[in-house]
Structures
1.
Amino acid sequence: MKLLKEKAAKAMKALKALTPEDVKSLYLVILFAVIVLIAFAAIIHRLAVLCETLLIIALLLSLAGTIFIVVFYRCPHCGKHLGRSGGKYCPYCGKELNK
């Protein structure tokens, strides 16, 4: 159990070290995976059980992506959520985001 807690703490530390650009890139990968799953489910709609399973996975992945972006897409300096800002500088503290 202690080993599991140590690994979880190490993983959280690595996630917090991500730059806002890295977080945005990972979020886009998650969204792409959701789109692929939904498209695949639409193609194989005759296999109802598999289709439903894929849609549930897509829904859960979408929810996880949304939580991920809300928790980790923050300014590394002031910690405020960056929202839809796509610039190089934080709209709140004015510091460069990828440093």
2.
Amino acid sequence: MKTFKSITLATLLLAGTSLFAANPVNDQVDPDKVAQEIAQLLEDPSFDYEDGTVAEVTLKVCEEGKLQVVSVSTKNKKAKEYIQTRLDSQKLENNLVVGKTYTLPVTFQSLS
């Protein structure tokens, strides 16, 4: 079995940029750093997937600053479960706006 790495950072960087384009955020939030944090949370998926598997993830920031996964739209059930498990109730170092909802695309790609 091939070793799969994390979500492609370039995709998340692009996603991070589009994530913040439509949503107001704290002046101190760096979209690239948030995208990198999310990429780290989604590192080393433990399931098989086809390159290019895409999911649209909707997140909300709770009062405690933790992420709440509102929805994951994808055809791959294992990818959906993986994203929900890895992101739900996680707190990012970069504080997003509490109560705001963010939507970002996530693409799984092999880096090997």
3.
Amino acid sequence: MSGVPPPTPPPPPSPPQRYRRLGKYELHQLLGEGAMGIVWKSYDTVLRRYVALKLLSASFRKTRDMQERFLREARAAGAIQHANIVTVYDLGEAEGQLSMGCTSRTSAG
């Protein structure tokens, strides 16, 4: 050959991104925070769809009154069906963290 170096091989593929897990959810992106809760764009690994996942704020997790309020809010929101309001389809607890899974027509990836 004429002293030309061989082409550089392509870099290896990037490893898959790791997300924080909470039960069946992967927490992908923080969407917002309020006084009572934090909302994440999350991926439901069982139903295989993106959802808005509301978590009770750390400062309220230890108080029984706030836990009960969070549960009442989830149940009340779950009873409402309207095109302009998210649908609550899951209420649960994982790793000591209360969560409310919501979806709407705009929660797609």
4.
Amino acid sequence: MFDYTNLSIFLRLNGTDTAGLETTKKYYRVDRSKISYLRFILEAYDGVAMVTTIDPRAGTVILRVAPGCLTEAEMIIGDLKRDMLIEELETPYTP
């Protein structure tokens, strides 16, 4: 898996603008019994996105999408919506 954090550090040290290399954060509510499945599927797409569970009881997760992979991540989520509950949250999660 490619480590975008190290690339960003390398580019900054060499004077390159890294504004376009920031991860995109997307918040979702999913069926809590499917959080592991979501994580498993996204890990299969090496380097596209990382899933972090914010509230396991509510099924709230955050997707950190790698630079340049937003379209691919949205396509994966769109496909998964056919099989499970995935609801995008408009604002960052607050308990």
